[in-house]
Amino acid sequence: MQLYLSSAQRLYKKKDLQLLRKSPQNSFNETVLYAIILMSTFFSILFLGGYLFPTFGLISYNTIIWLQPIILGLKTSLILFIFIWVSLAHRIPKEFWI
User: Fold this and answer.
1) Could you tell me the pTM of the whole model?
2) Model confidence pLDDT, tens digit, residues 32-76
3) Which domain range does residue 55 map to?
4) How far apart are CA 89 and CA 63, in angstroms?
5) 2: phi > 0 → left, psi -120 to 50 → alpha, else beta; which?
């Protein structure tokens, strides 16, 4: 076991760690994540009814106006979860599939 690393070895180890941190396979880029959040919000507004939820005519939408951002957030979170799940499952090598 080598106890002392030369300066060149330390530099290579440091560069390897920096490359590992910047590798696109390890994590989402920040801009890509913001784009996914925006796409999920647009999808939930356009195709899932936005902040509306089924009341079945029992209550009025004006009585629970504080619930509307929560409903939109839940719908957006659901689409975001599905989108990230599919995109990360696509990266799994086929050897690990059942």
Assistant:
1) 0.62
2) 888 889 999 999 999 998 888 877 778 776 777 888 899 999 999
3) 26-96
4) 41
5) beta
Between 83 and 3, whose confidence is greater?
Answer: 83
Half-sphere exposure in the Cβ direction for 96 (13 Å, CA): 5
Instruction: Flag whether 46 is in a domain.
Output: yes
Residue 11 near residue 77 (C-beta atoms within 8 A): no
- Asked whether the predicted pLDDT for residue 4 surpasses 70, the reply is no
Question: How distant, in Å, are the alpha carbons of 25, 28, 57 from that of 21?
Answer: 10, 11, 53
Domains of the chain: total: 1
Token pair listed for 84:
């990230």
